[in-house]
Amino acid sequence: MRILLDEAAKAKLLPYLDSDKVLLLTFEDGVGPYSQHAMIHMQTQFSITIISSKMEKNDYNEKIPSEIGDFWIKGYSKDALQNDLRIKFNPRLSTFSLSGEGGMIDDNLGLIDFTKK
């Protein structure tokens, strides 16, 4: 399993990252401190979540490599993912999307930076 990012997604995410930051691909199921809501729709929802290396990530027990660093996930969220994942950024709409070899997984992938005060 891996994540490929298009150039626009890399350009958008790299300014958020440094050696103290950790990338999460958060399955929005209401479990854990970074999930924003339980699923209330009949669709799968994910967010790109940025935390500091000092913040808790106990629920995130597996990682998926990418060109900009590993994305940590809740292991059971792999059931909603695919082997070859792609994150794209649409500058016109200012939105990210997550897809795999089987098609679109989340067409409005959120971005949340928990390191900002």
TrEMBL record:
Residues 1-113 form the Core domain. This is Iron-sulfur cluster biosynthesis family protein. It comes from Enterococcus xiangfangensis. The lineage of its organism: Bacteria, Bacillati, Bacillota, Bacilli, Lactobacillales.
